[in-house]
Specification:
174 residues; alpha/beta; five-stranded parallel sheet; 7 helices; 5 strands; 14% strand
């Protein structure tokens, strides 16, 4: 009887205007590919790069799907976004161009997110760093807060929550 329940839920969701239904029983890779496809197919809702003047955002994540999905979502919302696959590339990007906000994965090979956070704050204390983690580890959150992180996001991400947090940080910095 499970398929009938799923079919009914899908019918009701479509009546409410839901364009795509994703089930939780699939891999992160599949989820990010589907979300990215939906973002690429969707009409651009941003009003001529409305947030470009507020500052540059850097997304740092070793997962290509997560990095691309966040970058695409934020660019489509009108933010000026760049991405880096690791800590070394992130620090090079920050040194090359003024960055207002960094969204940084906590667990990455090589230089982890806490070390990236520490080096960013040594370079420029005014850069807001939001840590992105798959696990809400209290010790990591305490250490990141002590190092100057201004926020924490847990994967899988609430994209509209990310947008609100970024806007509040950018507006505070005006």
């Amino acid at each position: 009887n499970e398929p009938d329940v799923d079919a009914e839920i899908c019918r009701e969701a479509r009546k409410l205007g839901v364009a795509e239904i994703l089930k939780k029983d699939f891999s992160n890779y599949t989820m990010f590919k589907r979300i990215l496809g939906m973002l690429e197919d969707a009409p651009d809702m941003s009003a001529d790069d409305k947030y470009l003047s507020l500052g540059r955002i850097l997304v740092v994540d070793d997962c290509p799907e997560m990095r691309t999905t966040l970058e695409t979502f934020l660019n489509r919302k009108g933010f000026h976004v760049k991405a880096a696959a690791d800590g070394e590339n992130a620090l090079a990007e920050i040194r090359a161009q003024k960055t207002k906000i960094v969204i940084c994965d906590e667990r990455m090979p090589g230089m982890d997110g806490l070390m990236v956070l520490k080096k960013i704050k040594e370079f420029d204390k005014s850069i807001n760093v939001i840590m992105l983690t798959a696990v809400g580890d209290e010790d990591v959150i305490k250490e990141a807060t002590a190092l100057g992180a201004c926020g924490f996001l847990t994967k899988p991400c609430d994209f509209h929550g990310i947008e609100k947090l970024i806007l509040s940080l950018l507006i505070q910095g005006i």
